[in-house]
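testing teh design pipeline on a random one, pls ignore if ur not involved
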């Protein structure tokens, strides 16, 4: 399914991003287009209010732009690299309609976001810092600061060597998810580096961070030189697990050459079911072939346990060439 109405986590985050706009900003009549891989299970809040449209991130940028032309969203939520890829194909009408773009899941600089905002005709392009384990961590707001989402997560920034909290400087993110009661993450070492400094005066009282220094996933490369962002590969892994119905405890997708991949996963049920193993492999091969546009080679294996690594978060997606 390439387009589907859905409700994502976007309404809550754009509500925060939109707090600056006179008249309340984000309202129930506006539509969000959410470029992602797996659709949410409902398409609105309440009786058709706060409509959300899902567009698959696995289709080509021209097609995404055509769909946006049809649905004419007020708000767009997607990865920075997906935004960059569709930008040349967006019509003036779509650009004029947009009131906000929220980018997430990949690194982007403030200068890059401001440049894209100009190309869109002035619609603000603001960043969301989040993770699967800790949910929303910080939002870039129009005041110019990143503010920690202290209603959803408790964050400490610690020295990478001593693991002691620091007040100023660059350190590791350690977080406690305040929303996830089914599988609590308490003092979880995210593996990302952020910089904190003196808090600047602001109407918003949530703590500020100066800069997000980097996430550890690597972008992949096609034979023609096209960059495939790590977020797209992560999307493929979500789509794969969602379609096949497998419960992966850990995984690693490594690109060893422009057409070769080493994929390792821990999934106990697959170890006992050769038929499902083959089905899983075939579907993943199909999804990766769509993105890489040619025949590929996959070294696919299932393990009982991954080797223990350092206290930092495992890099499940990486490139070795």
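output:
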């Amino acid at each position: 399914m390439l387009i589907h109405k859905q409700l994502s986590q976007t309404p809550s985050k754009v509500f925060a991003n939109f707090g600056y706009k006179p008249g309340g900003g984000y309202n129930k009549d506006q539509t969000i287009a959410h470029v992602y891989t797996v659709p949410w299970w409902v398409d609105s809040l309440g009786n058709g209010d706060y409509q959300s449209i899902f567009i698959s991130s696995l289709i080509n940028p021209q097609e995404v732009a055509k769909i946006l032309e049809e649905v004419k969203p007020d708000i767009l939520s997607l990865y920075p690299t997906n935004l960059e890829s569709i930008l040349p194909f967006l019509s003036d009408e779509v650009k004029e309609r947009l009131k906000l773009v929220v980018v997430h899941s990949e690194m982007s600089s403030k200068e890059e976001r401001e440049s894209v905002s100009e190309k869109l005709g002035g619609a603000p392009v603001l960043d969301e810092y989040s993770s699967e384990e800790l949910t929303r961590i910080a939002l870039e707001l129009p005041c110019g600061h990143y503010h920690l989402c202290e209603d959803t997560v408790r964050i400490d920034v610690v020295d990478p060597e001593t693991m002691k909290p620091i007040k100023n400087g660059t350190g590791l993110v350690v977080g406690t998810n305040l929303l996830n009661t089914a599988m609590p993450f308490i003092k979880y070492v995210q593996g990302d580096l952020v910089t904190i400094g003196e808090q600047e005066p602001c109407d918003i009282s949530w703590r500020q961070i100066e800069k997000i220094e980097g996430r550890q996933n690597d972008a992949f490369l096609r034979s023609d030189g096209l960059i495939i962002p790590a977020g797209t590969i992560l999307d493929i892994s979500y789509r794969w697990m969602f379609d096949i119905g497998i419960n992966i405890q850990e995984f690693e997708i490594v690109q060893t050459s422009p057409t070769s991949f080493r994929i390792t996963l821990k999934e106990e049920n697959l170890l006992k079911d050769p038929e499902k193993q083959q089905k899983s492999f075939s579907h993943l091969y199909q999804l990766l072939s769509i993105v890489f546009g040619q025949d590929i080679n996959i070294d696919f294996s299932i393990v009982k346990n991954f080797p223990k690594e350092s206290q930092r978060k495992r890099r499940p997606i990486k490139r070795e060439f």
